[in-house]
Amino acid sequence: MKKKRLITRTIILAVMALAVGYTLYANMNKDKNQKIVIGKPAPDFVLVDMEGNKHRLSEYKGQGVFLNFWATWCKPCEREMPYIENQYQQFKDQGVQVLAIDSGESELAVNRFIERKGMTFPVMIDEGPVQAAYGINPLPITFLIDKEGNVVRSHTGELDEKTVRDFMEQIKP
Amino acid sequence: MNEVKCECGHINPQGTILCESCGRVLEDKEKEKQLVDMRYEGSARRSQTYNKTIIDKIWNFFSSVKVGVWLIIILLVASSLGTIFPQEMYIPPVMPAWEYYEEQYGWLGKLYYDLGFHNLYSSWWYLLLIAALGISLVIASLDRVVPLYRSLKNQRVSRHESFLKRQRMFSTSDAVLTDEAVGKIKENLTKKRYKLREENGDILAEKNRFSRWGPYVNHLGLIIFLIGGMLRFVPGMYVDEILWLREGETKAIPGTEGRYYLENNQFIFEVYDKDKDEEVFQDAINKAGTVVKNYQTDATLYQRQGEIVPGEKPELEKIRDQAIQVNKPLKIDGFALYQVDYKLDEMSKMAFKLENKETGDQFGDVTVDLYDPEMKYDLGKGYKVEVMSYFPDFEFNEDGEPATKSRIPNNPAFIFKMFTPENTEGEVSFVAIRQNLEPLGENDYKMTFAGIETKNVTALTVRKDHTLWIIGLGGLIFMIGVIQGAYWNHRRVWLRRINNQVWTAAHTNKNWHGLKRELEDVFSDSGIAAPEDQVAEEKKE
After folding, report:
1. Are B128 and A20 inside 8 Å of each other by CB?
2. What is the pLDDT of residue B50?
3. Least trusted range by pLDDT, from A43-52, A130-139, B131-140, B320-329
4. What is the DSSP string of B341-372?
5. What do you get for the CA distance between the two ends of chain A, in Å?
């Protein structure tokens, strides 16, 4: 009798706790927009860079991809860009590709920024779909994608030169 | 010991106040009272009894009505806080949210943002409160409805004297009950739709017992309602997004995973016109100044063809043109797009003329698309303007350098380099609204402002809701419960022969006045006194 009561109560409470737990979990994920899972394939995308070349992420299989989301008005993005450029020079012959995706600004703003900072890796403008697919909210954010096309790591916020180097080392095929 | 055995032989759960079967008072404390407490039929509310394991403690916490009421009060206060300022999802995305709140509502707005009230209804603590209320509903109901059901099912016709005389409505008559009188009373009770049970010449008349389940049906409705709300978090069940679309712009409809695109051909904002519209509107127009007649987005709906890869230029197939007006949404594939907001006259293009400062001669027009400025504007004959920098939302940053706050042209500013036959090296000019600076020394030429072009922006709510029918069902059941409990009264009349007396007692869960009148009718001409109200001060119903 007593045991039965305990079991019934436990089951009812457990079912409700599960439902509440799921709701909170789903809600948190919705807020964070966590669309990227570490260890899982990175969402594919196609963008055209400032020179008119088409880049499709899935075509970089076999190389590590250092995927950086940025904007010209974002100060930390501006500060980390030279470090990425420097390290790109070191790693580009070792199979590491840098792709920088601007957050929907005008070509003018992006081109002037490239002139000023002297970036040589492909820079492209995304009007929103790619950022949505990656669940981008604050900038800058960097994703490391290995040669199999899986996301190894994501980093939100400014990078220093050492970290950029470590990151590229990590995805070197 | 888990059980209490009554003198009548019935076995009651521990904590029972009135025997489920005969109604004897089982608790000593209750014996001292003149009237018994008939709430839940004196049954053992299960939470009151055991308090041993942690599970029991949690259970008992949620079973308390007091806890439930506090949860409701806290939720009411919290929910009203969320309506002081608009929630984040409803503010125009022209600037970062914290900035918007501070700019619009001052320090209060900043506080509102800092406390997280801008996303109140999806905050974890708000959801926990709702969940706690849901749990409280389930447990409190279970804890009461099961014993109540047991008591009403087990009740015997012949109730014990101590039970009868402690009823609020009670009387004794020194009369012999003739068959004729009994027959009359029974007939009267049947006429009033009572259901009769007889045992040893004692009578129990009862009607509308189902009214007692009203509150629990009502709670069931609420729980279904909450389950519907919970299902909104299940992917694919619910979409509520906002789409800001400038005139001429085509964008993917959020929530459709890039399958559908919408183009805004034109946003129309019409007000009632004093001269053109019918006279009936005159008073309203005079009173309010402007009265809006129509908000409308002329839209074109497209479906994307082929494989969807984010970023790739979509291959779109037109589905149809449609005007979206308030309450006339565009519907596609379970999604509905409602007109919800707008922004008139957002700057889209800015025109300049290159002018010789001395002579005032002008050379060509430069029209800059504020969303996509060209790098160079060639005006011919050696005149050329280069845009060196563009700040859509201009400000001076901490270092005193020109910068932009966002990519929306709220306050556009440019650094132009002007090439003329006289100055083949170029002259630098900084141009913002009502500002024209020459940072690198005196120039011969300047960029004269020649006007702006504006565009309207529309905002549409994208809504898909597969939970609505569940929420509606919950609401319906809720209302059925309310009606069930409110419009019927559960009434019982007991009639017992004790020695040479006839005892009568009656109980109702509400509307004692109605019961009294009914009983006066039933017992009239029978020679037996109708049960009388024992509560000295008669409560007005």
Report:
1. yes
2. 61
3. A130-139
4. EEEEEEEEEEEEEEEETTT--EEEEEEEESSS
5. 65
Residue B489 to residue B504: CA distance in whole angstroms: 19
A106 and chain B in contact, CB less than 8 A: yes
Q: Which CATH number fits domain B157-208+489-533: 3.30.1490, 3.90.550, 2.40.30, 3.30.310?
A: 3.30.310
For B375, which of A46, A75, A111 is closest by C-beta distance? A111
Structure tokens belonging to residue B421:
């036959």
Of the candidates B59, B372, B406, the beta carbon closest to that of A13 is on: B59
Q: Kindly report the backbone phi and psi dihedral angles of residue B285, in degrees, each rounded to the nearest multiple of 5, phi listed first.
A: -65, -45
Burial of B501 (0-12, 13-18, 19+ CB in 10 A): middle
Please state, in angstroms and rounded to a whole number, the distance separating the CA atoms of residues B143 and B44.
9
Separation of alpha carbons B149 and B152, rounded Å: 5
Task: Give contacts of B133 with chain A, Cβ < 8 Å.
Answer: none
Whether residue B310 and residue A28 make contact (CB cut-off 8 A), yes or no, is no
B59-78: per-residue pLDDT in tens?
989 999 999 999 999 999 99
Q: Which one-letter amino acid corresponds to residue B346?
A: E
CB pairs under 8 A between A and B: 114
Q: pLDDT, tens digit, for every residue of A90-104?
A: 998 999 999 999 988
- With beta carbons less than 8 A apart as the criterion, state whether A103 and B408 touch: no
pLDDT at B540 (0 to 100): 46
Q: Per the structure block, which two tokens stand in for B41?
A: 């039929």
